[in-house]
Amino acid sequence: MADEHYPDDLRxxxxxxxxxxxxxxxxxxxxxxxQEALGEVVFFAPPAVGxxxxxxxxxxxxxxxxxxxxxxxxxxxxxxxxxxxxVATPELVNTDPYGEGWLLRVKLSDPSELDALMSRQEYxxxxxGLSA
Length: 132
Hints:
alpha+beta; CATH 2.40.50.100; 9 strands; 33% strand; globular
């Protein structure tokens, strides 16, 4: 399992998903908190390349030894890539949630939606409120 951390260069969604811009494409994944809550991830059911995802809507499922959890889109757009490495080796989500464990690459339809997401500090504060 990866150590708890939340990179500064990401934006965070209240459902514990993150987004990082890579040129004009957004990379989606789940946070350390989400993978820790799930436990060992054993299956990822992604959308297909070419599908569209809607901000705050579900786009797939992660299954762990504990539960099945929906994955939420932090922004809207068209799926341009699925991380086949995570499909083949789902535990990458646990060992490297911000690197090799990314889930989707999405061409955003409205990049301004990212403005509503949380910074690292805001997300850390949000997490503190959950455990209070």
